[in-house]
Amino acid sequence: MSQYQDDNEQDDWGPSKSQLKRDAEALQKMGEEIVSLSASELERIPLDEELAEAVELGRKLKPKKDESFRRHLQFIGRLMRSRDMAQIEEALSIIKMRHSTVNARLHRLEQWRERLISEGDSALNELMAQFHDLDRQKLRQLIRTANKERELNKPPVAFREMYQYLRGEIEDQL
User: Fold this and answer.
1) How far apart, in whole angstroms, are the C-alpha atoms of residue 102 and residue 99?
2) What are the boundaries of the region Disordered (predicted)?
3) Is 5 in a helix, a strand, or coil?
4) Phi/psi at 107 (nearest 5 deg)?
5) Domains and CATH numbers, the chain
6) Which of 38, 46, 83, 102 has a CA between 20 and 30 Å from the CA of residue 31?
7) Is the pTM of this model over 0.90?
8) Which residues of 72-96 are buried (b: 16+ CB within 10 A; e: fewer)?
């Protein structure tokens, strides 16, 4: 009889030691992401009492970034192994998606601001065609002032004001 009787027996061995380590490291990394969330974002994550206490302690240890913080993240990862992670992963992905959506909007606002300053009236007409509620005269004045500030190497006051105006008026529509 051979040492390995059947190929099907190999399926019963379960995941390899390397796979178990990768899974543990992934849970530890997820624990670190949870610890680094803001208080309002943390409220959206469904954590049981024991895990919530561990995360809160991790938030207190976090600024130190020493061995105790690393060991505590391992502890959080160990706690997470015995929990159903589907809801926690879903809540984390929603928070991450919200961050990327907000960043994309702000980036589009910055692009509009740069186009307005560099292209002038053609970009302004295009912007006004998309967003009818904007104050054309105010934008023209901000564009003119921002260009003068650049020419004279002055602080970019109008540049920032234009961004704030656009953000207040059209951020939700982008």
Assistant:
1) 5
2) 1-25
3) coil
4) -65, -40
5) 17-82 (1.10.60), 98-171 (1.10.60.30)
6) 102
7) no
8) bbeebbebbeeeeeeebeebbeebe
